[in-house]
Amino acid sequence: MSQIIIRPIVTEKMTAQGEKENRYGFVVARTSNKVQIKQAVEKEYSVTVTGVRTMISHGKRRTRYTKSLILRGRTPSVKKAIVTVKAGDTIDLYSSI
C-alpha cells in the first residue's frame, strides 16, 4: 500500500456499493486530498477514477469499568474516501487476503 491509502473498507455496505455502483471505500491518510487519493488508487489498482468523496469520522468515546477504577478514552479519528471508478473497471480487494 502507498502512504496515502492505509487500508480498504470491507463491509457489507461497501461490498454492495462496489457491485452495484462501482464505489469502493478506503481509509486514507489524514493529510491527503482528493487529487492525491485519486492518483494513489489509479496507481495501486490500475483503474480509472471518476470521483472521490471524503469524510472524517471522529473517534467514539469508550468507557471500561475495571475492578478498581473507570477508564475513559477515545478511539482514533480516521479519514475515509469513497472512490467511484469508471464503468467496466473493478477493484479486487480480496486478492491480497
Structure description:
The strands form 2 sheets. A 4-stranded antiparallel sheet has the order 1-2-6-3. It has a two-stranded antiparallel ribbon with strand order 4-5. The chain has one domain (5-85): 2-Layer Sandwich (Alpha-Beta Plaits), CATH 3.30.70.330. It is α+β, with helices and mostly antiparallel strands and 97 residues long. The two termini are 13 Å apart. It has 2 helices and 6 strands; from the N terminus they run βαβαββββ. Helix content is 23%, strand content 38%. A hairpin with a 4-residue loop joins strand 4 and strand 5.
Distance between the termini: 13 Å
CATH class: Alpha Beta
**CATH homology-level superfamily:** RRM (RNA recognition motif) domain
Low-confidence segments, given as residue ranges, are: none
Strand content: 35-45%
User: Largest sheet, described in full?
Assistant: 4 strands, antiparallel
State the order of secondary-structure elements, H for helix, E for strand: EHEHEEEE
Quickly count the domains: 1
- CATH architecture verdict: 2-Layer Sandwich
The count of β-strands is 6
The helical percent reads 10-25%
Q: Class by helix and strand content?
A: alpha+beta
CATH topology: Alpha-Beta Plaits
Number of contiguous helices: 2
Calculate Rg over CA atoms. 16 Å
Mean pLDDT: 92
How do the strands of the widest beta sheet line up side by side? 1-2-6-3
Shape: elongated
